[in-house]
Amino acid sequence: MNKKSNCKVNQLDKGEELVESRFTFRFRLRIEFWLILGVVVLCAGILLWRGIKEKTAPIGIAVISYDGEVQMRIDLSSEQDKTFTFEKNPKVQFEIQDHAIRFVHVECPDKLCEKSGFLRVENQTAVCLPNRTTLTIQGSGGEIDAFV
Fold first, then answer.
1. The domain containing residue 86 runs over which residues?
2. How many domains does the chain have?
3. pLDDT average, residue stretch 18-29
């Protein structure tokens, strides 16, 4: 009789452990769910904030430099959509569209500058090293804030 009572006690202990492990597993799943949901909401908020910030940023001035010398300054807020080159380097073609500017056609081997896309936000820069051409967006004041 003593052996049977010990067996029942052992079975109860195993059952309690099973219930406890299920509770721990569910609790851990619940914590992981809320943690993942929090990270997703945080990332979505950051992306939304950056998108709003970029769309509401003031339209700047495009500065095109060749060999370290400024060749053109274009006020993107008043410029019409067009495609153009500048006389010192006709191998480089630019496009202005919807108050943004980009390298559209460049005669160079890698064409990385074309892949940089449209620039519209202050302090964005695209460079074509083989053609020694730089495209930078400055603030509408045209002043340099700092050198880095």
1. 61-138
2. 2
3. 64
